[in-house]
Amino acid sequence: MDSGAVTRSAAEDWATCNLPADLADLLGQDLAPSHPHAPLRAFLRAVGGVRGGWSDVERVVAEPTDTIDRAAEVVVLRLWHSLQERRPDDAALSLAEALLVAVPLPSVERRALLHLNIAATLQEGLKSFDPDVWRRIDLHLARALALGQLTGMVRVSVAAQSRLALMAMLRGQVPTAEHLAAAARRTRGESASDRTEAWEYRVVAVEQWVLHCRNQSVDLGRIKELHSRMATLGHSALSRAVLASAYCLAAIDELGMSATRRLLDVLVCDAGVEAAGVWQLMLDLLDGYLAISSDDGRRREQAVASLRRVGAEAEARLLEATALARSRDYRGAADLLDDVTSERVPSLSITYPSACVIQGVAYHRNGQLEEARRCLTRAVADTQRTGVLRTFTIHEPGVIREILGGLQIDNAATADWVREIRRAVDAAEASEVFQTTTVPLPTADGAASAVVSPLTARELDVLRLVASGHNHQWVAHELHISLNTVKTHLRSLRHKLDVARTGEAVAVALAARWIDVQG
Fold this sequence. Notes:
The structure is a single chain. This protein is mainly α and 519 residues long. Helices cover 68% and strands 0% of the residues. It contains 28 helices and no strands. Helix 4 runs antiparallel to helix 5 (90-99).
């Protein structure tokens, strides 16, 4: 095999730690540390678990370098070694950055590998919410992807795409994360190995998170299989944490809260997960959520403290506000979330729409209906862009339906999205697992409950418009239904409320706070 082919294979395989069959003969060769292929041989021996493999790595990285390309290969090997050993090598990181602006520059293949390994080092070591570091990761991954595609380095491209998908997931960018995960699968295509590769663990975690956000079924069996396989391998803390999160998200829908609590107790004891820094975010949120549902204040406080340690202030406030609402302190819950919903405190994942929903429910429980509608309007606008439905199906479906019914919708696309949200809320409430996967926010003492309405969402729409003084023809036009359908809804709701006249039905609905008439 010529030197160029070896270099390319090395670059691609260092990206994802796979051993290609056509380079296996290098394992048995006795090469001096200064030999051109010594970095590749050391890498292959270490990955293959060959006795003395790690010693080879240490000898190669200690050898003086005489060319820019050799220096790049050794620095990449140092970065890879530090990731495997979970021991930061700040000197190698600085040298890698310097090599990317050196004169002359390393070859295109080596630059691709430098960008990828710098990004991986920063991403795996991400301990807090640091926008500057996030931008550096994005930049290096984007350049690794561009150079990988330019040179046909499939594994480099796939690794960059899967890592970019994780960054999108952390930011709550559902469509972007979904697109990048799908792109990684397309890029790997038919050349994929029979065994699960490192990139696929990341991609599966992203795919399952997207399904969860959209209230679609997560594949618990697939996640469980991958997680058990990962437990026998030396995967990074990042991969272990995001796959553990996907495992719990699948379990909560399939098995309910009690079983998920037992699973979470096991997963968080994994030393790899404990070292995951900001990548443990979803596990901490779920841990706090389960603690609130079981009124475990100590466990909730631990989750809140863990979130604050990584700079996830918005997420910590979300848990605290949910706990306040559950204890009927609705004003405290709404006030605590003000800085989050006004975006003065930055949020991760899908925290922003979740905070808007919790704040809306708190305002509604406190009788502040206009503020509640304003919060739900923000949540609708944000989720219309991302396709997230989950955030509307966790707390008090009756309240969510009522607030949605009072929103002023000014375009057809938003009206369609609100109908989609309502369908999701109805489906979640009707599902068998709903009672074990929701956190009820009780009605304040003496307050009227909004969840006892026997009317459908459409009947409430019709009644609200009639109560506002509109005639039947106008209601039909506004709701895009026929005049006969309006009359059918009115007959149905009068029957359900056991009244003879629509005016009496309006009075009942207003008294029960099922509807709110706009002036």
